[in-house]
Amino acid sequence: MGRVRPLTTNLELLRMARLARVRLGVAVAFAFVCGVLFATAFDWTRHLGAQNGVRVAPVSAAQVDVSGGFARIAEQVTPAVVSIQTERDARRTARGGQDGRGRVPPGFEEFFRQFEERQQEPVQADGSGFIVSKDGYILTNNHVVGDADRVKVTLTDHREFSAKVVGGDPTTDVAVIKIEGSDLPSVVLGEDTTTRVGDWVVAVGNPLGLDFTVTAGIISAKGRSNRDLPGLLGGNYSISDFIQTDAAINPGNSGGPLLNSRGEVIGINSAIASRTGFYSGYGFAIPVSLARGVMEDLIKHGRVRAPVLGISIDEVSPEDAKVAGVERIRGVIVRGFNPAEGSPAEKAGLQAGDVIVAIDGREVDRVSTLQRVVRAHEPGETVGVDVMRYGKRQSYRVKLLEREETPTVARAAAPRVEPARGEAVKLGISVEPVSADFARETNLAAGDRGLRITDVSRSGPAFRLLVPSDVITDVMFPSPRKVRTTADLQNVLSGLKAGDVVSLRVYGTAEPVIGVRVVNVRVAQ
To answer: Where does the record place the catalytic residues (predicted)?
Structure first.
């Protein structure tokens, strides 16, 4: 899969798109009409299901509502879809000196002055949104308006409004803006949880500057997570329930609605998977069930009051299931705790490596299920959590914490890993004991000093699970023990055969994962 990209456009892309606009409407309509006439002439519409004596069960109009439905949806919804233009003032960074130019070679002063003036021009971008209330509240993506200094909204009837950013949530990429008006056209928010893979959907937005474009497709998949979409928008998103669609969306579609066959919003178009930055067949939308709650919090409180268990989680792998004693691969594994100290889940008794199999009596099959149930609660409420731990099912009561805004904190650069002759082991890694200098540079506590990983083989079983500068502190499974020397680790691994799984407690000392987590690795064949 190619890189996953946000869908906003910059000004140059907009100009290019408008210059390259190809009018395909007549050709598409002609092809569609010819197809219908061709099928009708041969009476295929009546006899296709009768071939080979196969009886086709009658399908109700409610199940397949596409005859004229796309046009009806477009007429119904497009007036409530808006084009969003943003401006961001250039952030000037001086290179030194009172005028910001520092030391400039003689004769180049005018050149650098003109260059810096061009740098100070506002940065413009385009996106989409949709009106959710007659008094002017609009849903869109946070990456469309999050850093904007000015926001302008244009409706299909060419009315223009200055918009105020009510608030945004970077972790879900949902934002709310407001325009002043009354009796404005608005959409109906539907229910994404009842949709199925294969359902028809419609996307409306402003791709490549082509205002109020309507495209159609189907739901290609549900429950896509950040793990499925590496590098999603370059952000720290906590969404594990993306709706995947093949409806054509492109840069500029960000923030526009994804609609079901009744014209109800089921998602916010947010990203595409593409190697080129343009449509390649896969688009992703934030489910409206998530966006609705974020919107209500932003309007009511000006911020998102998100309940959290205080855990770092992941989908369960075959190795995780084996260690936890889960019969079939399902549930959510607790990799670690967040915050590292004071996590409500850790206080309640959960441990890193536990696999959550139920919450409030509802079976948990994947991350999106867990997140959906937790989001239905308020911070301060208590939920029941069932986990599997080394083959035993245990139950806990966890008081939900309100998610704190995570400030951007400048971190010291991770210490450079010098080439070292750490001892290679069965996991495809090289290790060496943590040195006093490394422990001091990374602020490692005495209890977290074990074996530092110096290299990870790309062909080894630990590739993508462990990284150089990780520190292995304990073996958790099959036999718990502290790890301080290479001999400690080798003694454990020597008793394992190819295909066995070992569970490691690891302390990450560098981005992207800092802190304690549990990693389950299958011994190489």
So the answer is: 143 (charge relay system), 173 (charge relay system), 254 (charge relay system)
The verdict on 300 and 315 lying in the same domain is no
Beta bridge partners of 356: 332, 387
Q: What is the pLDDT of residues 229-250, one digit of tens each?
A: 654 444 456 676 899 999 998 9
Report the distance separating Cα 353 and Cα 374, nearest Å. Answer: 20
Segment 371-395 shows an average pLDDT of: 94
Contacts of 194 (CB under 8 A, 6+ apart): none
Q: Domain range spanning residue 153?
A: 1-43+65-90+110-304
Please confirm, yes or no, whether 143 is among the known catalytic residues. yes
Q: What is the CATH number of the domain that holds 492?
A: 2.30.42.10
Question: Taking the CA atoms of the chain, what radius of gyration do you get in angstroms?
Answer: 27
Angle, alpha carbons 512-418-423 (nearest 5°): 90
**225 and 278 fall within a common domain:** yes
Please give the distance of CA 147 from its chain centroid, rounded to a whole number.
19
158 is in an annotated binding site: no
Angle between helix axes 367-375 and 288-301 (nearest 10 degrees) is 30
Active-site residue (options: 83, 128, 143, 386): 143
How far from each other are the two terminal CA atoms of the chain, in whole angstroms?
28
